[in-house]
Amino acid sequence: MQRALLVIDMTYDFIADDGALPCGEAGQKIVNPILQAVQTAHQNGDFVIFACDAHAIDDKEFQLWPVHCVAGTKGAQLIEPLNQFYATYESDQVRYLPKTKYDAFFETPLAMWLQEKGVQEVLVCGVCTSICCYATALGAYYRGYQVVIDPALMADLTPEAHEFAVLQMENVLKAQRLSN
Ligand SMILES: [Zn+2]
């Protein structure tokens, strides 16, 4: 298993209209494309990881952002139909990874999991492009992984932030870009 698909923060709070911190239409537009990418990755035998914010109610991050993705609440759940996919295919190959910082590698077993599977390449997708996707791509780059991005599978609070982060990943992290 050489490739991992890292799906970042596709939770109710970040995607649903009545979520706590939604990316709006841009976020909703990538749900089905990500489901397709996840299905393809699953069929190909790639490692699929849903890395999601799962905060304590008094997390210091809430000094910066509205309260969101509190562990155990609906807001922290994967958005449908990704939640259904996860419920159906949860296994050694399809995992959920709770995280508390932007970077999915920070104080999580992610690096260990990738090492165990012999992963060399990570495809990062989800939200927000310039925050958690970027921070996780940076974490992957620091650890020597080839980062792959598909801008059509990421979304941000603004198109400007999305564009900037895509270019940063391409130019600074040498991410391989799969679409425009
Ligand atoms: Zn958060």
SSE arrangement:
Layout: E1 3-8, H1 12-15, H2 24-29, H3 31-44, E2 47-53, H4 82-89, E3 94-99, H5 110-116, E4 121-127, H6 129-142, E5 146-155, H7 159-172, E6 176-177
Parallel strand pairs: 1-2, 1-4, 2-3, 4-5, 5-6
The structure holds zinc ion.
Zinc ion (ZN) binds next to loops.
**Can you tell me the residue ranges where pLDDT is under 50 for at least 5 consecutive residues?**
none
User: What is the spatial order of strands in the main beta sheet?
Assistant: 3-2-1-4-5-6
Fraction of residues in helices? 25-40%
Biggest sheet overview: 6 strands, parallel
Give me the count of strands. Answer: 6
Q: Give the strand content.
A: 15-25%
CATH fold descriptor: Rossmann fold
Radius of gyration: 15 Å
The CATH architecture can be named as: 3-Layer(aba) Sandwich
Count of domains: 1
Summarize the helix and strand pattern as letters.
EHHHEHEHEHEHE
Present as ligands are:
zinc ion
Taken from the alpha-carbon principal axes, the silhouette is: globular
The number of helical runs is: 7
- Report the average pLDDT across residues: 97
Q: Which structural class is indicated by helix and strand composition?
A: alpha/beta
